[in-house]
UniProtKB/TrEMBL annotation:
<keyword id="KW-0012">Acyltransferase</keyword>
<dbReference type="InterPro" id="IPR002656">
    <property type="entry name" value="Acyl_transf_3_dom"/>
</dbReference>
<feature type="transmembrane region" description="Helical">
    <location>
        <begin position="365"/>
        <end position="385"/>
    </location>
</feature>
<dbReference type="GO" id="GO:0016020">
    <property type="term" value="C:membrane"/>
</dbReference>
<dbReference type="InterPro" id="IPR050879">
    <property type="entry name" value="Acyltransferase_3"/>
</dbReference>
<feature type="transmembrane region" description="Helical">
    <location>
        <begin position="198"/>
        <end position="218"/>
    </location>
</feature>
<dbReference type="GO" id="GO:0009103">
    <property type="term" value="P:lipopolysaccharide biosynthetic process"/>
</dbReference>
<feature type="transmembrane region" description="Helical">
    <location>
        <begin position="35"/>
        <end position="54"/>
    </location>
</feature>
<keyword id="KW-1133">Transmembrane helix</keyword>
<feature type="transmembrane region" description="Helical">
    <location>
        <begin position="12"/>
        <end position="29"/>
    </location>
</feature>
<dbReference type="GO" id="GO:0016747">
    <property type="term" value="F:acyltransferase activity, transferring groups other than amino-acyl groups"/>
</dbReference>
<keyword id="KW-0472">Membrane</keyword>
<feature type="transmembrane region" description="Helical">
    <location>
        <begin position="75"/>
        <end position="94"/>
    </location>
</feature>
<protein>
    <submittedName>
        <fullName>O-acetyltransferase OatA</fullName>
        <ecNumber>2.3.1.-</ecNumber>
    </submittedName>
</protein>
<feature type="domain" description="SGNH">
    <location>
        <begin position="457"/>
        <end position="669"/>
    </location>
</feature>
<feature type="transmembrane region" description="Helical">
    <location>
        <begin position="289"/>
        <end position="308"/>
    </location>
</feature>
<dbReference type="Pfam" id="PF19040">
    <property type="entry name" value="SGNH"/>
</dbReference>
Length: 689
């Protein structure tokens, strides 16, 4: 690989148009365009190629600090500026996004492990909406940053071998890269967990290393100009048509990713550095591609949260793109250019540090140096964001509304409802989770099936009267968790403690119908073994859920639920179950955010759902309970619905915090009714102790 190879300005243009299509598809189409995959390929081509060129120069220093510092100066200031701006936007305009998950993503983005944080949180890649993280897009920056570290170390090792052994540099670098590319492709192409596969560095590595492979083995090819033009044209068509042909969120980086990657490879091989992609406009687009990618997504998500519009109008989308381009240009001029390292890699023995220290006396050097403490201070401050947001979450779920003004479900019992503003704040309801979620006592959907947060932090995951000898296990998923604040209060009042053994998206079931994933099945198998060993005095779970049968009420009882109840009965463990609450849906099937709908329209009834759409006339679980004397189902339909409707607001309290979870406030307003339903069973258990 010649160090004097002509720079490929057309690939700068390809990078720019790839990111431009990412932005356009995010804003207007809601799909993956394949532009990120092309961007990763080009990152491997340019970055690892430059590292290898420097490593081959016998006079260049092989100290890995220099390329690492150069990379930090090129990428990190812009990232920090965008992250801080996003934090300010969230604080000022979208308080509902001040969530623990996003707080941890903020730190993960600063540390370039956002892709792994999203996997840990079980966050699937989703199209833009007001429910998606404004930092979701930074997964690719994390993958890229992790690759850069690999590339620097790899190039230094190759340089050491080449200089000492005098071996063919292309062979020394190319063979390991071909192996890494093949292994990564095998991982990506055979993966069954598409969510993990989408974010994983190991699955994405082939897209990056393939770029370096193309540089090593194809940069010296001589392609006839006419053939080259055809290759570039076909390749560009493939790149630009990807988003229309593939569901990239589920299919990439699997075999389907060969389509956009293959198109980019055709441009790399067939291009000559000239043409449309090398025009001034395209090269400018390539220069601002990085900040444009960083800016557009948080702006889009914040705007969607403010407007509560799932499909922003064209003029809004155009405005978002225009502002993103403007901010990208300003960031490039005022942040990227002044702070990036323009000097090449130092020579062996060159005292670059001394020269750098002398430049601190100049205005330009002082400006660059001032960025270091600013970034350090920002990173340190970021460490306190999760703690501050956790305090906010705890305050939110412990707040109490005046029952005289906010009677909640007691409106259905004839309690007068004064004229008052509906509460709580509908735009912060997504953060008003139950105590178990607030204390991270719910295992995430992506967690190992053996993982139970209670085992690591029992003091945080035990509620109610923690000194009581009467123990209830709250089991299942988030629809059990939504009652934990009520159970916490009842436990304190009536002398029982509640242990949270919960997993996201994992109801207590012995599934044979494919209702839950394999990890949930294994979790529930382990849960039964645990219940047999621990023998709690009773368990608390849910008894129904949507079955989504056409032309029927949503509510049903999966067979796996009944099998689980039979196991409980055989173990002699009583059960308190909650009949599930309605899941709100628009006529086209999309989720309806009940509180936001009611806040925007003022129509509590229309923003809820007719009772018969979800509930059956009778609780279907009652006829299926193996032991009705020690297994009860609390009828939530009597708590949150009148004879005809289940409104989105009751007694001045918003009923739903999203499309299918009840607010803590409405659940707490039903505390007495819940106790009356479970009192006889709990008292009989206490009397036996």
């Amino acid at each position: 690989m010649s160090s004097s190879a002509r720079y490929r300005y057309d690939l700068d243009g390809l990078r720019g148009i790839a990111i431009a299509f990412v932005v356009i598809f995010h804003v207007f189409v809601g799909k993956v365009s394949g532009g990120v995959d092309v961007f990763l390929l080009l990152s491997g081509y340019f970055f690892l190629g430059s590292q290898l060129r420097d490593a081959y120069r016998t006079e260049a220093s092989l100290n890995p600090w220099w390329p690492l510092w150069r990379t930090i100066r090129r990428l990190y200031p812009t990232l920090v500026v965008v992250l801080v701006a996003t934090l300010v936007l969230i604080s000022a305009f979208t308080p509902g996004l001040r969530q623990m998950t996003i707080a941890y993503q903020f730190i993960a983005s600063l540390g370039y492990f956002q892709n792994w944080e999203l996997i840990t949180q079980g966050q699937a890649y989703n199209a833009a909406s007001d429910a998606v993280s404004p930092l979701q897009h930074l997964w690719s920056m994390a993958v890229q940053g992790q690759f850069y570290i690999f590339a620097i170390v790899f190039a230094c090792l190759v340089g050491l071998v080449v200089r000492r052994r005098r071996m063919d540099a292309r062979l020394i670098a190319g063979l390991p890269l071909l192996v890494v590319t093949s292994i990564s492709m095998f991982i990506a192409f055979t993966a069954t967990d598409w969510q993990h596969n989408y974010y994983s560095t190991f699955s994405r590595m082939w897209e990056l290393t393939l770029g370096a492979v193309l540089l090593l083995f194809c940069s010296q090819w001589r392609i006839a100009p006419k053939v080259g033009k055809v290759m570039v044209g076909v390749g560009l068509f493939m790149v630009l048509s990807t988003g229309l042909l593939f569901d990239g969120a589920r299919q990439f980086p699997g075999p389907a990713a060969l389509y956009p990657i293959g198109g980019a490879a055709l441009i790399i091989i067939g291009g000559n550095g000239y043409g449309l992609l090398a025009s001034g406009f395209m090269r400018w687009l390539g220069r601002i591609a990085y900040p444009l990618y960083l800016w557009h997504w948080p702006l889009l998500i914040v705007v969607m949260n403010v407007s509560h519009d799932p499909t922003p109008p064209v003029w809004t989308g155009l405005a978002i793109i225009a502002v993103s381009v403007l901010l990208a240009q300003l960031t490039h001029i005022w942040i990227e250019q002044p702070l990036r390292q323009h000097a090449g890699r130092p020579l062996r023995g060159e005292l670059r540090v001394r020269k750098a220290l002398r430049t601190l006396k100049t205005p330009t050097g002082a400006l660059r140096a001032s960025a270091i403490p600013v970034m350090l201070a920002t990173c340190i401050a970021a460490a306190f964001v999760p703690r501050a947001w956790l305090a906010e979450v705890e305050q939110l779920y412990t707040v109490r509304l005046d029952p005289a003004v906010y009677p909640g479900v007691r409106e259905l019992e004839g309690k007068s409802v004064p004229d008052a503003e509906w509460a709580p704040d509908p735009y912060s309801l997504t953060r008003r989770v139950g105590p178990a979620w607030a204390h991270w006592c719910v295992a995430l959907q992506s967690a190992d099936p053996d993982y139970v947060p209670y085992d690591e932090r029992p003091e945080d995951c035990t509620f109610g009267d923690t000194r009581s000898k009467v123990t209830a296990y709250a089991i299942g998923g988030s629809h059990t968790d939504q009652w934990t604040q009520v159970l916490d209060a009842l436990g304190k009042e009536h002398g029982f403690k509640v242990v949270a053994i919960l997993r996201q998206g994992c109801p207590a079931t012995l599934d044979e119908e494919g209702l839950v994933d394999e990890e949930c099945e294994r979790f529930n198998e382990h849960l039964l073994d645990r219940l047999e060993q621990d023998r709690p005095d009773f368990v608390i779970t849910t008894t129904t859920r949507p079955t989504w049968q056409p032309d029927e009420p949503m509510e049903g009882v999966p067979d796996g639920y009944v099998r689980f109840w039979r196991e409980l009965d055989q173990l002699g463990i009583p059960m308190v179950g909650f009949r599930d609450n309605p899941w709100l849906r628009e006529p086209d099937g999309t989720p309806r955010m009940g509180a936001l709908c009611a806040a925007d329209t003022g129509d509590a009834e229309a923003c809820g759902t007719p009772r018969a759409v979800f509930y059956r006339e009778e609780d279907p679980s009652l006829a299926l309970l193996p032991n009705p004397e020690e297994q009860i189902s609390i009828d939530t339909s009597e708590l949150i619905c009148d004879e005809e409707n289940c409104p989105a607001v009751l007694g001045n309290i918003y009923v739903y915090r999203d499309d299918n979870h009840l607010t803590n406030a409405i659940a707490m307003s039903a505390k007495q009714q819940v106790w009356e339903s479970m009192r006889d069973l709990v008292e009989s258990i206490k009397n036996k102790k």
